[in-house]
Amino acid sequence: MTFADEIRYTSATDPWKLSQFGFDAARQGSLESLFALSNGHIGLRGTLDEGEPRHLPGSYLNGLYEERVLPHAEAGYGFPESGQTVVNVADGKLIRLLVGDSPLDLTYGEVLDHHRTLDLRSGILHRHTNWRSPNGRSVRVRSQRLVSLTRRSIAAICYEVEPIDDEGDLYVAIQSDLLANEEAGGAPSTDPRSAARVAPLIGELSGAKEARAVLGHITQSSRLRMAVGMDHELEVPDRSTTAIDVNSDVARFTVSARLPAGSKLRLVKYLAYGWSSRRSAHALRDQVEGALATSKLSGWDVLVTEQRKFLDDHWAAADVEVEGDDEMQQAVRVAMFHVLQAAVRAERRAIPAKGLTGPGYDGHTFWDTETYVLPVLTYTAPESARDALIWRHSTLDRARARAAELGQKGAAFPWRTINGAECSGYWPAGTAAFHINADIADAVARYYGATGDLNFDRDYGAEILVETARLWMSLGHFASDDGFRIDGVTGPDEYSAITDNNTFTNLMAQKNLREAANAVGRQVEVADRLEVDEAEAASWNRAAEAMVIPYDERLQVHQQSEAFTEHDEWDFADTPAEHYPLLLHAPYFEIYRKQVIKQADLVMAMFLRGDAFTAEQKARNFAYYEARTVRDSSLSAAQQAVLAAEVGHLDLAYDYWAETVFTDLYNLHGNSVQGLHLAALAGAWTVAVCGFGGMRDHNGWVTFAPRLPPKLTCLAFRILVEGRAITVKVGRNSATYHLVNGKAFTSSHHGKEFTIAVDAPVTLPIPAAPEVAPVQQPMGRKPIHRD
Amino acid sequence: MTFADEIRYTSATDPWKLSQFGFDAARQGSLESLFALSNGHIGLRGTLDEGEPRHLPGSYLNGLYEERVLPHAEAGYGFPESGQTVVNVADGKLIRLLVGDSPLDLTYGEVLDHHRTLDLRSGILHRHTNWRSPNGRSVRVRSQRLVSLTRRSIAAICYEVEPIDDEGDLYVAIQSDLLANEEAGGAPSTDPRSAARVAPLIGELSGAKEARAVLGHITQSSRLRMAVGMDHELEVPDRSTTAIDVNSDVARFTVSARLPAGSKLRLVKYLAYGWSSRRSAHALRDQVEGALATSKLSGWDVLVTEQRKFLDDHWAAADVEVEGDDEMQQAVRVAMFHVLQAAVRAERRAIPAKGLTGPGYDGHTFWDTETYVLPVLTYTAPESARDALIWRHSTLDRARARAAELGQKGAAFPWRTINGAECSGYWPAGTAAFHINADIADAVARYYGATGDLNFDRDYGAEILVETARLWMSLGHFASDDGFRIDGVTGPDEYSAITDNNTFTNLMAQKNLREAANAVGRQVEVADRLEVDEAEAASWNRAAEAMVIPYDERLQVHQQSEAFTEHDEWDFADTPAEHYPLLLHAPYFEIYRKQVIKQADLVMAMFLRGDAFTAEQKARNFAYYEARTVRDSSLSAAQQAVLAAEVGHLDLAYDYWAETVFTDLYNLHGNSVQGLHLAALAGAWTVAVCGFGGMRDHNGWVTFAPRLPPKLTCLAFRILVEGRAITVKVGRNSATYHLVNGKAFTSSHHGKEFTIAVDAPVTLPIPAAPEVAPVQQPMGRKPIHRD
C-alpha cells in the first residue's frame, strides 16, 4: 500500500481544514473519530446530526466509567477483579430531520452534495448536505458543531434547513434529542484490545420546559452521576409548532415547520454536561441548567468567537509549519488539534489513550499520556500538562496502596486505568510494565524543567518523584557485582516480557532516582513530610550510579534487556503480511523469547535518555533494532523517526513521520473507528520538533540539532520554555532561532552554545548529516515511502 | 507443628490397615479422600454409606468431564477457550437407613462406637457403627465397600444391620439409591487451585425392575454419555417388603423390614458404571446391566476373593517393608495402595493428579503422572505404566495440533487436561512449562528401558520420542556461541517463569533428543513413517551435545535458569508463616524475579539427570537450593529427600520422606479434601527406593547405592526389571540383592558392579555416608523432624 492508494481526504489540501466529500459508509467509523470534537471534558464523536447511519454513536465525559468484573481463567494474587469502561453517555448531538415524511438518511434518497469540514482555526465541524428525499423534495442542511474549548461543560450546534427545489412549501419536522442508553451499534469486535461496551445508565431525574430539557442518570455499578441538558433557539420563516417531551432515557424537542421556497429554518442547540461521584442528582441538574442559561445568554456567535480566539492564541504559541508537503502540513495540524482537544479542559482528569474520540482500550489512560502527549503539551500548552500531572498526583494514594499490595515500597501507578485503580487483566504486559512509573516521573521532571513551576514541584511533583524512586529501590537490588539490577519487568516493547534489566526501564529509573534526589534537595519541607532523610536520598543516587545497562560486547550493541541478543531471531521471511500484528497470530511465549520487537524500546531509550549513549552507539543500536522492529504498535513510528533523524537517516525519518501523522487519517492500524491513536498523533509534533528540529531536554537544558528532511524546504515550530515563546525556523542550510518574549535564552545548536534575546534572533549553519550505511526493516515491514 | 500434635489415625498401628475411630466432622473431608476407593476407572470417595454428613460426595468415572468456558480478562492468541472439569457422576454408594423413623446420622442420636478401616490387603473399606437413635433404639451397622480391581466397571457394598438392644422388634427401612446431580456440598473455595464444580447431567433413560435399576445421562456441553446400574441381594430374618422407584435423576430400592432382637439384615448392592463418547444410551445401559448380571452371579464372596488375590500378587511384587517406624510402614503402604488404585484399571485414560479421589485441579492430569507416578508403576505394575503412556499416545494428534497452533514443530502435550486438549488458563505456568514433553519422553524411555517392551516402543513409544524431540528442535536454537538455547520457558519451579535455559528443562530435553535418536535407530519403520532421515536424527544429537547448562562460576553452583543466581533473595525473615503458600499472598512478578523456589527444580534435575552432575556439584547445589526452597508444592519433598539421601543428609531425607508420605494422612497442605496428592504419595516409594535404596536408572542401567536412615533398622523393596522380580534388603551395614526369577541381573552397588542370579543373592557392605556440612532451609520452612 502507498498513501496514494488511499482516498484523499481533501479535494484541495487546505492547510487549516480537514474536509471529506461524499458519503462513504466504509470509512464512516474512522471519520467519526477524526471528526470527533472534544475539550478534554466532553467528547462527541463525529456522527452525522441525524445520528444514523453510524458506526459508534459515542458521547463521553472524561472520567465517567462503569465498573465490570474482570474474569480470570486462573486467578492469581493481585489480579484486578474489576475493570472500568468508559460510558457512552446520553447523546445530545442528535438532530433528526423529517423532510415531508422521509427521514433524512444518506443511505436513502439521493445525496446531491455532501461534505464535512473540521476547521482547525475555528474549532468547528461544518456539515453541508444537499439531499433529495425519496418522495422528491430537495433540501440543504448545514450544521456547525462545536465543543467549547473555553466553557468546559458546553457544546452547541447550529443547524439550518432550507428547501432547494421549486416545488412549493416544504413541511419539515426536526427532532432534537437527548438519548441515553442508545445501542452501541457495530459488530462486536473479537480483537482483545477493543473495549467491552455496556449501556449502564439508570435514570434518576428528567424534566422539560419550553425548549429546554434535562436528564439525570447514575451508572449501575460505579454509582457515578451525570446530567445533560439542552436548550434551543429557533428561527423559523413561517408557520411552526414546537413541543417538548421527556422520559427517563429520552428528551425530545420537536419543531414542525412550513418552509416556503427560498426560506431557511435555523435551530441553535445548546448542550451542557456534568458529572460527579459525590454530588446529588439535583445539584448536577442545577449545574447543567445554569451552564445552559449562560451559554444561551451569550448566544451562538459569542461561543464561536471565543472558540476562534482561543485557537488563534494556541496556534500562535504552538503551530508547526511545514513547507514542501501540503498534505503533511494539514495532517500535522489535524494531529495537534486532536492532542489539544483531548487535554485542554480535562483539568484534573486523565487524558485517555484515545482522548474522548472512541471507546477503544475501554477509555483507559496508559503511559502514552505522560510519554507521548505531555511532552507536546509541556512545550505548547503547559497548563494542560500540569493538570494531567495533578490528576496523576490525585491517584497517589491508590498507587501507594497498589505498591503495598504488590509487596513494594512507594507508589505503583496502574498500567491502565480511568480512576487510578489498576485495570490490567494481563499482568506480564500490565503490572510488570513498571516503567510507567519512571515515565510519569520523567513527565514531572520535564514539566518542572520546562516551566520552573515551583508551586507544582512543591505541591505535586516532588512527591511523585519521591514515591516512584522508592518503588525503584524496592524493585531493584544490588547484585553480587554491585550492579543495581531491576529484574523481571516488562519494557515498552510488549513483544518481550518479564525480562531482567530492560535498558529503557533501567535508564528511566536511573533518571527517576536522580530527579527525586534533586527534588528533595530543593523541596526540603516535602522531604520532611515524606520522611526522606539524607541516607535515603543518597541511596537513590547510589542505585542510579550502579544501574546495570546490559551491553553485548561481541555485537557492540546495547541489549534491549539482558540476554536479548542471545535469543533466537524471528523468521520474518516466513511470516505473511496478514500475520501482523503478531500478537493476534502467535502465542506470547513464542513472541517473547525471540528477537522480535513490537515497538521502539531500546531506540526510545536513546531518545529519552540520549545522554546515556554515544553517537556511534546510537547509530549501531538503531541499525540493529531497526532490523527487528515490526511496528505492531502505533507508538513506534514516531520514536523510530526521531532516532532515524538523529543518526542521519532523514528519508527514513520522514517516512516514519508520515506513518505516525497519518495513523488515523489513513486508518493504518485498521481500528481508528475505536478512537484516535492520540500518542501517534502527538508524534506529529515530536518528530517535527525533536526529530527534524533535534530538540532535546536533558537535565533541564533545551538544545537543538535541526536538520531538514530532503522533502521539505522549510520547517518552523514554536515552543514555550519557562514562559518564553521561542520560534525555530529550519531551512536547508541554516536554522534561525527567535525569542518572541521574555529574558534571554541560551541553548545549543548541533553542540554549539548560542543565546537569543527578543529582537536578536540567531541564524546558524546546519552541518551536513553524518554518512550512514542504509538500515533494514524486517521483511515486509519497511514503512511506506512518501515520495 | 509436629506430627505428634495431630490425631493418630490408628489406635494400634496395623501395618496393613488404616483405621479411624470415632466421628470427626472437622477431618471428614480429608478422610473422604483417604478412604476413597478406585480402580482407575471408577472412583468413589469415602463418604459414609448414608451419604451425610459429608464434605464432598464424589463419584467419578475416569475421563468423563464437562466443558466450561475459560474466561480471560484480556484474551490472547492460543489461550484455551474452554476447560474441562471432572463430573460428579450419579452416586451409587448411597444406602440410607431409617431406624424406626430416625434417619441414621452420626451428628444426631448417640454414637456408641464408630470406626472405619481401609484394608490394604483385601482392598475393602470396612465400616462399623453402633448407634443409638434419638428415640432410643440401638443398632449395629457394618458395611464393606469395594471397587473391583479386577472387574473394571464393578463396585459393591455389603451392608448389614442388627438391633443391639433388647427393646424388641426393630422396624428399619433401607433406601439404596442411585442419585444424579446431587449437590456438591461444602463451601465454595476461593483457592484458585480448586476445581470449578458443575452438576451437568441430563437424564436420557431410566428403568427399574425388582431389585435392579439403571440411569442413563449425558453431559450438557461435552456430550459424554454414562450409565449406572444397581442390583441387590437381600437377606432378611423376618417380615419385609421391597420396592423400586426410578425417575431421571434418582433410582431407589427400598427395603422395609422387621428385625427381631438378635437378628441381622444383610444387603449386597452391586454397582456397574460405564461411559462413552460414542456409544448410544441403550448400548451403555446394556453394558452396565450385563456387568451387573455377571457380578451378581459371581456373588459378593467371589468379588472379595478376586480382590484379595489381586492385591496379594501386587504386594508380592511391589511391597516396601520398613523396620523401625511402624507408622511409616503403614503410611507407605497406604500411599502405594492409592497409587495402585488410581492406575490399575485406568486402561487408556489419564491418571489425574488426584486420582479419582476428589475434584481438585478439575480432575486434570499434569506432568506429575509421568514424572512421579509412572516410575512407581514402571517398576511395580508395568502394564499400568504402559496403559498410561498409550493414553498419552492417543492424544498425539491433539498435541501435534497444539504445537502447530503455537507455531512449533512436533507435538506439544497439554499442561493440564482430561481429554488431551490444553486446559491451562495461565500460560506462564501452563503452556510455557514445555518440560512436560520431556517428562513424558522420559517416562517412555524409562518404561522401555525397564521392560524392553519392543511392541510398545514400535507402536507408541518411538513416535512420542520423535515428536517431542521435534518440539525441542523448534523451541531451541543454536546461539552465536554455538550453544543450544531453550529460551522463555518455565521449569518445574513455578516461582520462576518464562526463563532462559532452565537447567531441568534443558537436561530433560537433552535426554529426550538422545532417546529419540536412539529410538529411530532401532525402529526403522517408525522413522520411515514419520519421515525422520539421518540428518534429522543427527541434528538431535548435535543439539543435545550443545545444550546450554547455566553455571555460576563465582558461586560454583548450577543456575536453576540463566541469571537465577543474580536475582534478589526473598526476604524470608519478614515472611510470616501464614503467608505460605506464597502464591496466595504475593504477586507472580515478585515471586518470579527473586531467588525463591516453590519446588525442587535444579534439585530434581540432579535426580532424573544425576548423570550430568558430579558428586561435589550435587552437594554444593543441594545446599544452595535447599536454602531457597519453600516447598509450597507437594511435589517437592520427595525430590529433596532423594537428593538429601544421595549427598549424605540422611536425617533430613527421612524428614522429607515423612512429609511426602504423610501429605494427606496429616492434611499437610490443608486441601486433602479436594483429593489426594497422588504424586506426593508416589514419593513414598520413590524416597524408599531411589532415596534410601539409591536406585537410579540412567540410560537403561538400573543401579543402587543404598544407605539406611538412622531411624530404621531395615528397609526392603521389590522391583521388576525386564520381567525379573528383584528384592533389595537394606540393613545398617550391608544390603542384600535377591533375584526372585528370570535371567541373571547385573547392576552396581555404590559404584561397584555385581551380578545376581536366582538362588544366588549377593550381600554387599554399605560404605559410610560422606561427611557433609549441615544445610539450611528458608526461615520457618524446615521440615517437621520425625524423632
Report on this structure.
- Two copies of one chain form a homodimer.
- In chain A, helix 4 crosses helix 18 and helix 15 (615-626) crosses helix 16.
- The first copy, chain A, is built from 18 helices and 34 strands.
- The model of chain A is unreliable at 1-11 and 186-197 (pLDDT under 50).
- Chain A is α+β, with helices and mostly antiparallel strands and 787 residues long.
- Chain A is globular, with a radius of gyration of 27 Å.
- The interface between A and B is large, with 52 and 52 residues.
Short description:
2 copies of one chain form a homodimer. Helices cover 30% and strands 25% of the residues of chain A.
Could you tell me the number of beta strands of chain A? Answer: 34
Poorly predicted runs of 5 or more residues of chain A: 1-11, 186-197
- How can the largest sheet of chain A be summarized? 9 strands, antiparallel
Our estimate of the beta-strand percent of chain A is 15-25%
Enumerate the strands of the largest sheet of chain A in spatial order, edge to edge or round the barrel.
1-9-10-11-12-19-16-15-14
- Rg for CA atoms of chain A: 27 Å
- Form type of chain A: globular
Total DSSP helices of chain A: 18
Secondary structure category of chain A: alpha+beta
| Head-to-tail CA distance between termini of chain A | 13 Å
Mean pLDDT of chain A: 95
Largest interface: A-B, 52 and 52 residues
Multimerization status: homodimer
The level of helicity of chain A is 25-40%
